[in-house]
Fold each of these.
Amino acid sequence: MRVGIFGGTFDPIHMGHLLLAQQAMETASLEQVWFIPAGEPPHKQENEITPAQHRLQMVRLAVEGNPRFLVNEMELKREGPSYTVDTIQILKESTPEHDFFLLVGADTVKDLPHWYKIKKILQLVQVIGLGRPGVRAEGLPDFVTDRLQWIPGAIETSISSTAVRQRAKCGKSLRYLVPDPVYQYIKEHRLYGT
Ligand SMILES: Nc1ncnc2c1ncn2[C@@H]1O[C@H](COP(=O)(O)OP(=O)(O)OP(=O)(O)O)[C@@H](O)[C@H]1O
Ligand SMILES: O=C(O)c1ccc[n+]([C@@H]2O[C@H](COP(=O)([O-])O)[C@@H](O)[C@H]2O)c1
């Protein structure tokens, strides 16, 4: 089976993430996308991140009802930084029958050359990238571009978790930025200053 693996901090998950997953699925003829919330995202400050159980629950709510979008908790159960190379190696070893594709947004594409064991990652998976307005991923080394496919004619959005958190803090609505059940969850648990 062709499977997209989509890692993120998802603090919180938003419509931009879901649009990326949907369009990547179509572009690469994926049967499923596995959303993998990061336990300790390697390039983010741990003390600024919402506890994992909330981020996980919001991802679960966001994909509910879509049988092709699944949640994988492996990085939340692992100690230490959530290095993608480890995740991919474990997935390849445990399910060798699948072909894995790594889904990322343009800001992450730009950052790929700085990832831990990136050359190993690119030996194991192809990358599907979605543009983000205002982000130009140029001057990438050949070892990245050779394994990277942008989603052609993609619908891009500048929605970010940062913008969602900022709106919440200002008392603005999150409707249409996150799925309704995620918005309800944020309000119920008073996340992000709501
Ligand atoms: N609007 C978007 N368009 C395309 N890709 C996106 C978008 N938002 C997030 N992504 C991608 O989703 C993955 C996970 O991102 P992450 O969970 O850090 O969300 P974020 O919105 O970038 O968060 P933050 O604003 O907190 O940095 C990354 O590959 C990121 O590039
Ligand atoms: O493996 C790495 O070196 C690495 C460095 C930065 C980010 N990542 C992964 O990329 C995904 C998106 O990260 P982030 O910080 O934008 O949420 C998430 O799954 C991280 O674990 C992975």
Amino acid sequence: MQFTEVKYRVAAKGSPREILGGISGSASPGEVLALMGPSGSGKTTLLSILGGRAGAGAVEGSISYNDEPYGKSLKRRIGFVTQDDVLFTHLTVKETLTYAALLRLPRTMTREQKKERAMDIIYELGLERCQDTMIGGSFVRGVSGGERKRVCIGNEILINPSLLFLDEPTSGLDSTTALRIVQLLHDIAEDGKTVITTIHQPSSRLFHKFDKLILLGKGSLLYFGKASEAMPYFQSIGCSPLIAMNPAEFLLDLANGNTNDVSVPSELDDKVHMENYTLENNNSKNDYRPSAQDVHEYLVDAYETRVAIKEKKKLLAPLPISDDLKATITSSKREWGTSWCQQFSILFCRGIKERRHDYLSWMRITQVIATSIILGLLWWRSDPSTLKGLEDQAGLLFFIAVFWGFFPVFTAIFTFPQERAMLNKERAVDMYKLSAYFLARTTSDLPLDLFLPVIFMVIVYFMAGLKATATHFFLSVLTVFLSIIAAQGLGLAIGASLLDIKKATTLASVTVMTFMLAGGFFVKRVPAFISWLRYLSFNYHTYRLLLKVQYDPVPEILTTTKHMDNGATEVAALVAMIIGYRVLAYLSLRWVKPPSS
Ligand SMILES: Nc1ncnc2c1ncn2[C@@H]1O[C@H](COP(=O)(O)OP(=O)(O)OP(=O)(O)O)[C@@H](O)[C@H]1O
């Protein structure tokens, strides 16, 4: 790939700010290109632009991949490992790579071949010992940092990408693990791939593994060329270390404008006046160092005048490319790895595996069992034959309607905000259709969501002495199920439209409280101007259905003045909510842009 004069500007507080000022370079198949520079020099920005993931700023310059511009199908041939790559916490290493293989590898491969490819990657990356360990996260112990990085790389090399981009794959790792990862990148490149990686502070052993190097300083190019020729180049412009130094450390010092233990050229000495020097330690002339800004300007000038023009000429000469490759790269057709149904079933299984730990955690089970036992004891063998007993029992039915209207909203609300990063990442490489993800994600929770209410209902129903026939019990459970699915829809819609957990919980609390108050238990004779509110409340419809199941006809004292027929209106209202909220959630997910984090 080649890129010339890449510039990037963002609007900061109204005025444009230049992040990258004309960067040129290239990397060919078989090469590892390292992007180095101090923190904030623009490495990640450049990598993102080259990987087709530029942010909201304006990009100028030309970027070509084997002489062709970035195209849709190229997206599938690029692997991109970000700095804080997202992985599912509760999946094992093997599950993570297998699901990625099933979703990303082409349709021409069978399911078995895809699974084999995932296993090959596990062995290639030396992950066989931890293949059954959970990935883990902040609250769950899992694989080590180095293993996690290798899983992220594995996720991308699965698809055999022509171009692999990595943002700081070695940060936070010890030098041996870092070397292992860079050696791996080297091996991947030797297979005919182009690898471009940002790197923070490589050891000297690591530095020598790179074929090409781009050194950035404050968004400007200080060096582009072979990594092995970087030191001779800086020597040729009068900058060389005065003591034995790791070349990477020397280059970063220079890019930072720090010239301690570095000889500076006479041009820089002459150019800089005494007032531009910063005083260090004592007053002798030898202890004055050029300012960081002067060093930066000198290095940018030196590169521009001595190397840039020559290099740009080389870059602008097009590389030969076969017609077949050209056709693949320029084709704008989207290619999905699997059919819609397969995407749905893979995502469904992945969803269940990832979430079963949350749903079936002892904390949740204890919470539900404890609540149901307390309710059972409070309403122990309740008797609706007296007016007081009837009102008491209706209170229990209302509590059930509220409890199972409240709980699912607050679990579903986190679904999309939490998975936003993963969804963005996977959708960026066309792993699946949004509709397949949405349907799988919203249905994979159901079996788990409906498991706890059954336990709850069994305990409460029989302890409280509600109508003890199979039909009454099953109709009550069915009503609770409808309420849960409707409430879940509301949670999904709020989460998907706000994509921010704090805002979503605030809105959900207000909505759920309003629905609860409008539920027909506290105020039965609701003023006409506000009575429409209760028709939107799933608590209202659930409560009325539960009353209908227990007492037929429902005594007027328990319900509103509205005549209650066979319950079809309430069922229809709940079904309309189930569908309506989900459609709203889907549309929000499709159209709402995530807030910048
Ligand atoms: N969208 C943006 N809006 C405002 N500033 C931005 C934007 N994107 C990048 N920057 C700024 O551009 C500079 C370069 O950022 P970048 O993340 O590319 O640096 P980096 O070299 O990768 O740093 P590090 O090594 O610390 O990750 C930073 O000062 C950053 O704040």
Amino acid sequence: MSRRPTRRPASTLLRPEQKVKPAGMLERLYHGAKRQGSWLLPSRAFIHRRLLGGIHRHGELFSGMSDSELQDARKVLQTKLHREGLTDALLSETFALIRETAGRSLGMYHFDAQLLAGLALIEGCVAEMQTGEGKTLTATLPAAAATLAGIPVHVITVNDYLARRDAELMLPVYQALGLSVGCVVQGLSQEEKKKAYACDIVYCTNKDVVFDYLRDQLVLKDNQSPLHLHGGRLKGKASIDESLLLRGLHFAIVDEADSVLLDEARSPLVISGGKGASPEQQQVLSKAMALASEMVVDRDFKLDLKQRSVQLRPEGETWLKEQTRHAGSYWSGKVRREDIIHKALTARCLLEKDHHYLVRDGKVQIIDEHTGRIMADRSWEQGLHQLVEIKEGCELTAVRDTLARMTYQRFFRQYHHLAGMTGTAHEVSGELWSVYGLPVIPIPTHRPSRRCYSGPRYFPTLNEKWQAVVVSIRRMHDLGRPVLVGVASVAVAEQLSELLRQEGLDHQVLSAVNDQHEADIVAQAGLPGQITVATQMAGRGTDIKLAPVVEEAGGLHVILTEYHDASRIDRQLAGRCARQGDPGSFEVLVSGEDSLLEGKAFMGLEALMSSVTSSPLSGRLGLARLKWTQKQVERRHASIRRQLFQSDEKQDERLSFTGSG
Ligand SMILES: Nc1ncnc2c1ncn2[C@@H]1O[C@H](COP(=O)(O)OP(=O)(O)OP(=O)(O)O)[C@@H](O)[C@H]1O
């Protein structure tokens, strides 16, 4: 069965989405065997190469046409696509038309590598393209081809900045093809969102599209099925349709697919609502915070910073019972009492200001840990947000109840067609296949890479590491090369910024705190001698253009100052330099006091390291320890995602038994 979307599903007017069936044991085995034995099947790459020839043949024809002739050819092709769907012959012609249109409207003709990636995407695969290979332009191929065949497309990316930038950059191509483009970002009104979602191609972020889908679910309530919607329409209940934002889940092309489909899929998204906190609720929350601040770590509770967990100890439970004996009825129930204290301890010990949240204009604002950006309209659930507000002395907002929830795993499996692009997929290809049915296809680079990697350097202490970072920055700055320094959090970015100020090195900080200047900062990051300090966000999607003199000086130099939770994120940061065959270099400076190692002990490795006096050997052991920890964290995160996925499937099975008849 072809994985390619052909034509718009027959039920388009009824807001289609795929019914997610839990994968049974046989299905999983079949998928596994198919993946292992995929080399036995006719190679997709071979088929794609054949189609590539067809694209170039059609391209020669289109290149000789005038603009108006090209428009006429587009209309004829569109009619054929509506009638026959995206067959092999029509697909080559369609890609050739899109390529010619992009060449004329943007001055960029898709490279062969991009055409191959486009073919992989339209086949419902993850195209693994190296960083900087032009994923933004590549997405126009499957997006426009599907839309010309009548299938609405969502191009999903990780943040508002990229969604807006990509939609704006690619708009001329889509306009020349007669297609409408919408962009959904935070701050739009319902009407504006609805208008954007009604477009042929919608650029949006993963969070926005899932939340908007959940909002639609709340509007639909029990009227989820197409028949209900039809019935409502017949009864003249058009208002349901009118209040829906999305028009179904047809075809999604996910940029930075590993980040969206895996890294962010560890926690479900929740829509909550509720009234303002009552005086009694406020009293309970304040008391909980006061009690939590008196509790002593290791005596009353256990704290694991790396696992991000707190756990009450029996001593703590007894102490708590004593303290709340006469505090009122709320505190008499053990489960309720310990639950609120658990949250208060989480607010006190696990949620750090400037790392997990910011306090801006007297409000607690959550920082997205994947993008480093502020999520202004989001709050933590079930009183946790209010406890953080008490901790920071802010005015209390409303405590909210869960109204609807959705995991990324479930949401994306509901699309009729799903495809993804990323520079870092091979490590997680098994998971992408088993959860989403997405095969990974590696795409060759357009030009050979000229990235120089000098290998990692290890320092026993943070102090030594930061000194080395400053020395390296100064060396590159003196050579006239721009430097991008990747740091783990907003707080670390601020610390390094202070250090650079003391050294008299002019620099820019690209973090959640000053995101309004982001585009300007990124635009300047490739200028001679420019120093940019950035949180994870700059590791994803931002394109740094080099000034011509910088190319001669050796290109952009990237410094990684800490291994991230996943090696893929490190590779993304490295991918900021030496893009599209440009020169560039990458350096890793890490230390034995990095936050990755917090709370970790290693089977006597510390003792061994302290007994080793030779610094090359202790450096090697230190690096091995960091890499090993990173692997452990990756494994733990994969297991959290697996558990969430399995519990989601189980819930599905349970619902199928308890649903109303
Ligand atoms: N076919 C093309 N012709 C000329 N320039 C191109 C072409 N494709 C891409 N580019 C340029 O290459 C640069 C990188 O493109 P883009 O930012 O889309 O890469 P990317 O793969 O998304 O990078 P990342 O992996 O970092 O997200 C951009 O400046 C873009 O204009």
